[in-house]
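Q: I have 324 residues here and want to know how they pack in 3D. Can you give me a structure?
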Amino acid sequence: MSKSLSRSLSRRTALKVAGTGLLGVGAGVALSESLAAADVPASQRFDLSQPSYERFRGVSLHETHHAMQGMAYDNVNRRLYIAQIQNGSDGDDLCVNQLSISGGLTGHMHVSNAGHGVSIGVEPVGTASYIWMECDSDQHSDAGRGTALARFKFVNGGTPSSVKKFLTGSKTISCATDPVNKRLLVRRSESGGMHYSLFSLADAAAGQFSSPLAHFAQPTLGNGSVTFQGYTFLDNYLYTLDGTGHEDPADINSYVTATDMNTGKVVQRSFTAAGKTLFYREPEGMMVYRTVNDNPRLCFGFASRPSMTSSTRYASVYYKDVLI
């Protein structure tokens, strides 16, 4: 990336750091790579072999020329948030879309110099929704990847203000939130590859990252060279999505995987052809939400386009809901 951090912060859409100092702990604070989860009670998990169902299909987001990325759902205020690259951006300026669970677009925010947006989180605070996402993109990485986490209030049509930043100095960092247990899962590059660290959301918001509930290396998926496309979690299970975009449905290679965060081991990996009739279907993003009847659903997204030559992009979301 050619943009400098100082130049980006001077732009109208740049993140503003709250207070006089950086909050949280830096990437230099080492976490034991041998740490296994100690405080994550065992639970049921989604059966990934069961059928998937359409939540919504072919929705246009605010930035019509870029694919959806990470997503998260505010179960208290019933709002869906989906990240995507801004039209005209060189890769790290993001738009956070606000939607209904049926796919109706109700608002958006622009966040510059953020990163790729592969996964985001949301924290309900009263009637407000606070977004958790990567920030301070590394201009030297491919398409820009976050070097810290940001927490800010979603304001329709605005840009972030009173931003708190955490885990500054990280490499390729992102996060997701568990809406049921109020936890934050952080994924970032550490010695030996990508790792996940689990925290209570309250501790994370207070900048307390020294005692993770779990810390484990990202397990090898498939043949070890898959295209990672998103993740989410519920209780003690991590769910990941991988695969690439294809014009021919016969070439679909998308998979969902469940990992037990108490052991760091994969417990199920299943092929998914959900949304197979979408044109140039590409898996993008995951989240968990609970219905108004309190039923959890594992959601995963797909970007598509009307034709190979079109710059228009659509968003679709599918889900699984069988627990075992």
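Q: Anything worth noting?
A: The chain has a mean pLDDT of 89. The chain has two helices and 20 strands.
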